[in-house]
Write the structure tokens for this entry.
Amino acid sequence: MEKLGRKLRIGPTDNTSYERTPRENLRIIPPAARDSFLPYSRVQPGIRLGENDLTRLAPDLPRADGDAIEMSGQILDDTGQPLRHALVEIWNANKYGKYAHDLDGYSAPLDPNFIGLGRMLTDEEGRYKFWTIDPGCYLARPDINRWRPKHIHLSIRGGASRLITQMYFKDAEHNDTDPMRIVMGDDFHLNIGKQYETPNIDVERGYKFDIVIRGKDSTFFE
Amino acid sequence: MVKNNMNDTINPTNRLPLTNEDTVGPYYPICYDHDDRMDLTKSIVGQQFEPKGDKIILRGRYIDKNGDGAHGALIEFWQANAQGVFRTEDTESSPEIDPHFDGYTRYRTVTGDFELKTIKSGTQLGRAPNITLTLFSDGISRLVTQVFFENEISNETDPVLMSLPQDKRDKLIARLVGEDDDNIPIYDIEIILAGEGETPFFDDFLALGWRD
């Protein structure tokens, strides 16, 4: 009997899971080819100062609608080593649950003061910090009345580490019926930001989201 | 077998639980594209330096179960240089590294189509020339596969291709379909995400943190 890898589950993610999820099991990578499956990104984009503050379009322009929040944390590999100088990109909907993205046809209003994209490099200790707007939840599938709870998307890329994920909020509306939360099962708590007080800075509250990401020496499943 | 010395093998059960992967969703910021390149044969724009090796163009498209393009997906490309060596932290200063070839890029495809200008990788360590493609898209978290090239003798002994049944091997081999105005050969591959004629994808997830 041929040994095979995971069989991916079809959704129930947003719109295209049925069309895009392979029906066959994944294949096991032969040991001799393992290294070739670990992309290493050396080049990082030029980053402008202030790209980690999403709450204003420029320092003297008005704040976007909604609660300004801080999201911060440390990125470690699974052996506990910090991921230094990695690119962290975030994107999230505005207060009303609307993305500025071309493809978002949701009926909620755009906020002219909120673009909803930010990025920065982690520091020597693998730390990152963003200010953004507490995002709204939104009706992702009007056809079946399915909502997505509020969440912030993150993409992390540095060296041999790569992760695309989302940060969720504790006990938020629609968490329990969210397709991605259901797929994560008991591990959902790993993707919830932990709220903290921010008495001395100009945001309403903070969320600590520490991330553990696969490092280059990780063991492969066999 | 917990060991305290950092240089010792770390007991896998000591590993930290991984943050869950999640879908990239449909709204990945397109505007970040300007930092990405679909031409790996120019290491620095505006300079004459070029990587060693034979230039090729890999043209392809991701197709869903209905035959439609996987619009709005993010694709990452990863390959070795002409000597078959990957450029990583560990090999950065190796004499086998081509300072004018990086081997990594990413691209956000609007339609599911892509076209990468690059060089054909070398054949070190028994590997046939190949490019690793990672797809992030709405509906899935991540899919990984490798693309090979038609008419390479080394295909016959490549461990990845050999691990597959014959009909699946063919799904990973890009066909030579012509050349461009500069006589650079153009290879073409169709990657079928689901259903009839499905392309094989690989399980690069590690043991820890993974559960069925």
